[in-house]
UniProtKB/TrEMBL annotation:
Pfam families: DUF4130. This is DUF4130 domain-containing protein. InterPro entries: DNA_repair_put (IPR023875), DUF4130 (IPR025404). Residues 86-253 form the DUF4130 domain. It comes from marine sediment metagenome.
Length: 258
């Protein structure tokens, strides 16, 4: 009976790439790569804990990038989708990429390639939505704060956008679903974790956390939003298609709608 090798990593992307390196090094045809703390090994599975090694991770990254620049993007985006058994699917994808029969990152006749591309596109769309839908509110600590709750783990993908766009103000973007955030202090962006007692969604009631001027600005924006809306031309179906309702609780202009 052939044993099944389970590689357990720390959940980071570099940890995953290290596990891929080990899988290739051990010539594993099938590698069951799982996050630490979420291990579900079979009865006869052999388990090995993988310690993140930046050098090994970089070698995998460079190898994939040399094969295809679009493939490396697809791999990273698909990894951030957090789908079940994603690591095993990505391992097979990288195997195909490194194999002599690889036909390209857009060979949609290959089911594995099709799934990775599809997930990468979904994550890409969520990235663009977050870049458009994040709404900062000024706290009394003079830090601009925003909650988000994306379908996928897109914080690493939106960091550069907001650092460039809001380079002159300190801000925090916090993912309440994954319980971590980004903090920009006018110089660097750091990953942080907060002990939030309240999730700051839209409310007609004022919070003591934010400044009075912040609420005055929101009222001004909401009044402008309503005054420029032509009721006879409202297309609710199209509007919801572009701005799904699941985002409304974090959009200041939707305060009266939630």
């Amino acid at each position: 009976m052939n044993s099944i090798k389970t590689l357990v990593y720390d959940g980071s992307f570099n940890g995953f790439l290290t596990a891929v390196f080990i899988g290739f090094e051990q010539k594993l045809t099938h590698a069951d790569i799982q996050k630490k703390g979420q291990l579900q090994s079979g009865l006869f599975a052999e388990t090995e804990t993988i310690f993140t090694n930046i050098e090994k991770a970089q070698r995998v990254w460079n190898g994939v990038r040399n094969k295809s620049s679009s493939a490396i993007k697809n791999i990273y985006f698909a990894f951030l989708s957090e789908q079940n058994n994603m690591e095993g699917l990505l391992y097979r994808y990288i195997q195909k990429l490194m194999g002599s029969t690889y036909k390209g990152a857009t060979d949609y006749s290959d089911d594995c390639v099709l799934k990775i591309n599809s997930l990468a596109q979904k994550v890409g769309r969520e990235k663009h939505r977050m870049e458009a839908f994040v709404r900062f509110q000024l706290t009394k600590d003079e830090v601009y704060f925003a909650n988000i709750e994306p379908d996928f783990d897109v914080l690493p993908l939106i960091s550069k956008h907001f650092r460039n766009r809001y380079a002159d103000q300190p801000w925090i973007i916090y993912d309440v679903k994954r319980k971590y955030g980004l903090y920009y202090d006018l110089q660097t962006v750091e990953i942080i974790s907060l002990d939030l007692t309240d999730i700051h969604t839209n409310s007609l009631e004022k919070s003591a956390v934010f400044t009075d001027s912040e609420y005055e600005y929101q009222d001004l924006w909401n009044n402008y939003f309503k005054s420029t809306t032509i009721k006879s031309r409202i297309n609710t179906k199209l509007h919801v298609q572009h701005v799904p309702k699941r985002y409304w609780k974090y959009l200041s202009e939707k305060k009266e709608a939630v």
